[in-house]
Amino acid sequence: MLTLFVHELQFYLTTVRIHEMAVDHTQGETLPIHINMTFPGLPCQILSVDAMDVSGKHEVDLDTNIWKLRLHKDGYILGSEYVSDLVERGHNKGHASDQHHKEEDETHNDGEHHHSHVHSHFHTFNKDPEKTVKEVKEALRNHEGCRVFGVLDVERVAGNFHVSIHGLSIIVAQQIFESMKQVNVSHIIHDLSFGPKYPGIHNPLDGTERFLHDESGTFKYYLKIVPTEYKYLKGEAMKTNQFSVTEYFTPLKGHEHNWPAVYFVYDLSPISVTIKEERRSFTHFITRLCAVLGGTFALTGLLDRSMYQIIEFLSKSSKGLVR
């Protein structure tokens, strides 16, 4: 009885999640894209993050915050750079933008790491081409990598964002790389999400590793984003998004003119999901408890009566044999 009581108590205290679906009526909100990726084969000087929506225009958002960490080949940090806006203006088929970004002296503190040596981002791609080529070639010889992380706030419509070397002009890119096959877009996705995380959420791309050795090409991740609202047991509600993914890799062909990149193409589902935390009612718990206790009494009473009758029968039989 004690074992069954403890089991029922645990069953009562366990929180269950109820899923409900409805048409999404969200309007006028932005879509936060949290990215945290490592590119072990490309230095930070040439990596750019671009975002585009269905209208064909690049989104420029002052709330966009991206950090780039230069990584030694052994994995430790060499330096950091804060990019207030890596969303390119006037970007056209892989050519560099001619617009200059204002210099910013920023310091960053995310609660765990503090980077005191922060370089203002006067956009590497607008520097002296000879200096850029020299710096990048030196970084490539040293096998430097780059970690890109931060938040992109984009309009809540279908679009894509990609990490690439598309910010370089073709002339500079050709001076750095003898061929497109040398552009190694191997990457590790530490975290990719579209909002805060709730208990039990599964982001399918977290921990994804894709390494290229003897070839290069373009990775494309097609994401279907589902607007989600999570309601806690205490009544608090949190709006976020979950997503599914389909992955494709297109190897680089000799006649192609598109440089390798990592694309994330996303679309929004018209159906939203509401997840509610609920606990079974106390009356339900009492009813099940009474059923367990009453059933236990009935069963043990039946067994006791049966055992008594069997023992009594055996006792009478043994006395008859003695006589």
Walk me through what this model shows:
The chain is 23% helix and 36% strand. The protein is elongated, with a radius of gyration of 31 Å. The chain is built from four helices and 16 strands. Residues 84-125 have low confidence and may be disordered. The chain is α+β, with helices and mostly antiparallel strands and 323 residues long. The strands form three sheets. Strands 1, 3, 10, 13, 14, 15 and 16 form a seven-stranded mixed sheet that branches. A seven-stranded mixed sheet has the order 8-5-4-9-2-11-12, with no helix packed on it. Strands 6-7 form a two-stranded antiparallel sheet. α1 (2-13) packs antiparallel against α4 and α2 packs parallel to α3 (170-176). Residues 1-59 form the Endoplasmic reticulum vesicle transporter N-terminal domain. Keywords: Membrane, Transmembrane, Transmembrane helix. Belongs to the ERGIC family.
What is the terminal separation in angstroms? 44 Å
* Share of residues in strands: 35-45%
Count up the helices. 4
Q: Give the class from helix and strand content and strand pairing.
A: alpha+beta
Order of helices and strands: HEEEEEEEEHEEHEEEEEEH
How much helicity do the residues have? 10-25%
Catalogue the unreliable spans. 84-125
Give the overall average pLDDT: 77
Looking at the structure, what is the overall shape? elongated
- The tally of strands reads 16
Rg, rounded, reads 31 Å
Instruction: Outline the biggest β-sheet.
Output: 7 strands, mixed
